[in-house]
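Box 3.1 A note on notation
Throughout this textbook, protein chains are presented in two layers. The first layer is the amino acid sequence; the second is a token string describing backbone geometry. Keep the layers aligned when reading.
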Amino acid sequence: MRKETILSLAKKGLVSKEIEIVAKTENINIDKLLELISKGYVVIPANILKSQRNIISYENLDLNNLEKEFIPCGIGKNLKVKVNVNIGTSPDIVDLEIERKKVLVSLKYKADTLMDLSTGGDLDKVRKEILKFTPIPLGTVPLYQVAKEAEEKYGCSYKATIDDIFNVIEKQAQDGVDFMTIHAGVTLRSLELLEKDKRLMGIVSRGGALIAEWMIYNEKENPLYTHFDRLLEIARKYDITISLGDGLRPGCIKDATDKPQIEELITLGELVDVCRENDVQVMVEGPGHVPLNMIETNMKIQKSLCKGAPFYVLGPIVTDIAPGYDHITAAIGGALAAYHGADFLCYVTPAEHLGLPDENDVKEGLIASKIAAHAADLAKGRKDSWKKDIEMAIARDALDWEKQFELAIDPEKARLYREKKAPKKDKDVCSMCSDFCPVKKLKKAWEKKYD
């Protein structure tokens, strides 16, 4: 089993199996990857306990052996844009079979990571079961379990003790969680600004609201901030990648890039340095709702304030008036954010703002985010991304439908549309143009000219 954090190894120029797989998958020189990891520009979320599994790439995944396999992924500078899928129960819906289906559909369409955001049922049991059939990095938000257990034990979440908080963090680390969202940037200073700034929507982050509630009722500073050293001890022991949560992210585009958001980001930038100094991998979470004209600015501010740490964005969602279609509003924002520096897109499903996503919502959200990530990789000139698009163009020009399905992000949907709307006469073309297929007509014209 690996004995050190991946950051510690990289600083020494040592290569773990996880680093080796990421270098191969990303087609990046391993010395260059070590340099990026050692500087904190790239993270590989991988709990030390996962090093006991068979470390593989997606191409070698065996769906019948999920509990024994682990597919590491690199997140950050010079790497492909990654996509995360959120799953998990709620107080209203607790069904592990549904969660299993969400995992399987995520693997089918090659999500890079998962997050278990469960708030309903036996959270220890749910998490352990999800870990069993999750071969990709798994993240959590420990505050959710802290709040649920405090409600059961004390009658209200804000009575959770500091030991309660860190006991949950350590328990989740011991279970094998790879990265954790930690809302350490919500401080008394940022809450003062929030009160003065008169936001339209206050706090929309569940974790941010929970820690703010604790601070207000207890009249104390954020324990995740004041006891950050205790968090680092756990993170270093298990190589937990800290994902510094954006508890004060804007919940509507009117609140984007305001003082509370930037104040929190300044604090997170300071904590990035502390993590790196202690050999703990760290990334930073970013805004949720941002109009198009502010996305580039937000990405540049984050990269500057947070010293180039990998940036993990929720969307961002670019308009507030599309419930039921927020996978689209998020994909629009995600593509632009990734082009301007975001490294990691948290998917958004059509159910966002409306209810707990089901298996189909997960698929739609994941594919929309993967399209956004790929579009950004194309715009940034990644050769491996361009290769796929060029292959698709060649297949279309050859009217090679099977090759087109093979290259598609969602082959099943592409095939279904083709079959449902098949041409009546010429099977080479599609029913959109039929006899007027421009590809076929031009080929015939050239053939006639040179016949």
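The radius of gyration is 23 Å. The longest strand covers residues 82-87.
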